[in-house]
Amino acid sequence: SQTCNGGGIYTVSNVSVTSSQFRNNKASGMGGGLFVEAAAEFSDVELIANVALRGAGAYASAVALTNATISYNVAFL
């Protein structure tokens, strides 16, 4: 599916995500996989093959990534 921002997840609240995969998401704006406007922690996550205008894998203001795989994401800017 395709959204304006945050194809996989869009949040303006603090969030913690563990053992998740964000794959093949699309955003016409920013953050194909993730769009985060708050404090966020992601551990054991995969951001793979997401597409967006900016920040194909992730577009975030304050994010901590632990044991993350980020690959094959495409930004069209």
TrEMBL record:
Kindly give the InterPro entries that the UniProt entry links to this protein: Pectin_lyase_fold/virulence
Specify the superkingdom.
Eukaryota
Q: Under what name is this protein listed?
A: Right handed beta helix domain-containing protein
Organism of origin is Sphaeroforma arctica JP610
The top of its lineage is: Eukaryota, Ichthyosporea, Ichthyophonida, Sphaeroforma
